[in-house]
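so the lab meeting is tmrw and i was supposed to have these ready like two days ago... anyway. pasting both below. for each one the top line is the aa sequence and the line under it is the C-alpha cells. i havent really looked at them closely yet so no promises
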Amino acid sequence: MLRRRFLVGGAVSAAAVTPAFAKSKVTHASSSAAEQGSYAAFLAGVRREAISKGLSASVVDDALALTSEPNAKVLKADRHQPEFTLTWAQYKARVITDKKISDGQAAVNKREALLGKVSQLYGVDRGVIAGIWGLESAYGTKMGTFHVVDALATLAYDGRRAAFFRTELFKALAILGQGDITPAGMLGSYAGAMGQPQFMPSAYEQYAASFPAGGRRDIWNNEGDVFASIANYLAKCHWIAGQPWGEAVDVPDSIDQGQIGRTIVRPVSYWATQGVRPQVGGDFTHMGLSGAIIRPDGVGGEAYMVYHNFNVIRRYNPSDFYALGVGLLGSAVA
C-alpha cells in the first residue's frame, strides 16, 4: 500500500505545502544566525536594503516594529513539525469530514452569488475555488495568527531556509508598501503563508486579485478578493473552463498496474474499451477528453480518472492527495 509523508504546521493544513512553496526551490541558508550577528543588526540590514530598493522608511519601520527578537513559536514550529505517514484513505478521512462538508455547504450557500460571479469571470469551477478555500483556511476561519513580517524575519535570520525566507520577507515589505494591508493586519501561518488562500508573498505578487477589479487586494478580509485570487491562480495556470478535474472510477483487474499513473494519459474512449467505468454508473460524459488513472493506495484502493484540470490544481500544491481533496470537497460543498 502506498504511503506519503506530510509535514503539518501552524495554519497550514495536513498535506499542505503552501502555494508559493509549491512553485519555489528551497534554498538552504549560507550562514548561520550567529554568523550574521545580533537580530537587531540583522533587522537594521533589512531596513537599509528595503529603503535602498525604494520602499518607504515609515512603512518599513512600522513593519519591523512588530519583530524585536526571533519568534520562538515560529522557530519551534519550523524545527519540530510533526511528521505523519498517511495513506490516501487516511488523508481523505482527515480532510473530508462530515463537519468539513456541512460547514462548506453552509459557507457556499451563504456566498452563492459571489462565488458564481467570480467563477464566471475567471472561467474556473466554483467548487474547486470552494475546495481550496476549505482546505487552506477552513472557509476563512483559520488563516493563522502570526504577523507575517515577524515570522519571515525570524526564519530569514535563524531558519533552515534563510535565503528563501529573506526573499519572501522583502516581497512582504513591498506588498505593505503598496498599501493593500497594514503590517498588523498581514496575518498568516508560522511560515508566512498569508490570508485565506494561504499565499506566500511571492504568490500574492503574481496571483492576488481584487473583485471587483481595481481595488486593494485584501485576501485577509474581503471574500471577493479571496475567491478572485484563488480563481486567478488557477486561470493563470491554464484551467480549462467547462472541463472536470476528475471522477471516481472502477478499474478492472485486467488493467496492468503499469498503465496506472498521472503521466499515462490516454483518450477516455480508450479507457472505456478497457473496461474502466464511472463509479456512479453509466458511460463517461466526457468521452472526447483524455485522462489518466490514479490509484493513490495501489491495487485494491480507490481509483480516479483525472483530467487536465487536476494538474492545474496540483500547481497550487503539488500533491495528488491535495488535488483529490480539493476536487472531492469542492464537489461535495458546491
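ok protien two:
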Amino acid sequence: MVSELIEVRGHIIDSLLLPKILDEIIAAGGSFTIQDVQVGERRVDPSYARIEVVASSPEALEAILGRITQHGAKLVHEEDALLEAASMDGVFPEGFYPTTNLRTSVRLGGRWHEVEVSEMDCGIVWDPAAERAAAVPMHRVGRGQLVVVGHRGIRVEQIARSAEVNVFEFMTSEVSSEKPKGVIVREVAAELKRARAAGEKILWVVGPAVVHTGAGEHLVRLVEADYVQVLFAGNALAAHDIEEAFFGTSLGVSLTQGVLTKGGHEHHLRAINRIRRLGGIAQAVDAGVLTRGVMHACIKAGVEVELAGSIRDDGPLPEVITDCLEAQDRMRQAVRGVAVAILIATELHAIATGNILPASVKTICVDINPAAVTKLTDRGTFQAIGLVTDVEPFLRALVASLLDEAPRSSEG
C-alpha cells in the first residue's frame, strides 16, 4: 500500500467539493483518512481539510491524484512536475496531464508558474528558455517540446465563491423551464453593463434561429449599443441574416407575414451567391449592397466575427472558415479578454465554444431545448447557467433592460 497527504482549501463544504473529492478516491479504488478538518463559521469563511490518500500501488495512487487535483486538491509535500519531450508532431507523450478550464500552475525548478490560458483538454508545454508554461491543444504540440506528464507539481485553483448570492451562482444547480426568467434577464443585463464599464469583451455565439424567429433586429440593437465585441456563428446565421436583408425571408419564410414565399427556398442560395460575387460580406457593405441586418451591423461596428463552417454548408460565404482546426485556433485567439459569453440557440457551436472558455468567463446558455444546456455543462463548462426559453422574447427583454425601455411587442 502507498499513500500521499493532500489538502484542500476554500468553500469546500457548501460547494460540495470535499465530498466530491472523497467520492473520487473511493470510486478509483482507494481509501482515505481525514487527519484534520476546519469548517468556516461564516458563509464567507474558507474551510480546510488534510487527508491521507491510500492506494494499492504507485500507479493507482497517481490515477487517484490525477482525478482529485482537478477538484483543487494539492499535495502537502510539494515537488516539481515531471517533463517529457514529445516524440512527434501532434502527439503528447503517454501519461500527459490533461488540463481543465480552471486557473492552473505548474511547479518547476522549485517555483510555481501559472499556465498561460485556462482551457480544458489540452496539455501543458514548458518552454525552459522563456520559463513559460502554456496550455497547448494536441494538434499544436511539436516534436521535442517539453510536456508535463503525471499529476505531481500541478496546482488547480477552484473558482472562489462570492460572498453574495447572485443569479449566476444560484441558477447553475439545475436546468429548468420554470426559472424566474425576468430575474435572470435583469441579472444578465447588469453583468453586461458591468463588463462594458470595465472595458471587457462580450462574446455572442449565435445560431440561425435568431434570424428565423425574427430576433435579428434585437441583436442588431445590441451590436449598435456596443454590447457585442465578438460574434461566433456558422454559415447559416450569416446566410439567413443576409437572405432576410435582401429578400425579407429566412428559409424562404416571410418574417413579416409568416408564410412561405414563392421561390423562397432559393433565397438563401441567391443571397450567398450575390455575396460571393462581390468577394465577401464586408465588400457587400462597402458597396452599399448589404444595408441592414446582423452582419451589416457587425461590419459597421468593427465586431470580430468568426464564422466556422460545417459539412452541411451551402456556398459557403467567403468569410466562412472551412478548416475546423483553423476555426478552433481563430476562436481561441478571439476569446482572449472575454468576460461574458452568451450562447444562444446553437447547441453544437455552444459546446465547442464552452470547451475553449476559461472557467472564469461568466457563461449564459439560452435555448428552447433543455438538452442543449445539459450537454454544455456535462462536457465541462460547469460555470454555465441555462435559460430554457425561446430566443426572441429573451433578446427582446434583454434589449429593453439594457436600454432602459419598455419591451416592444413581437409579431413573430
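from a quick look at the 2nd one: The chain has three domains: 1-76, 78-163, 167-402. The longest helix spans residues 181-197. will dig more after coffe
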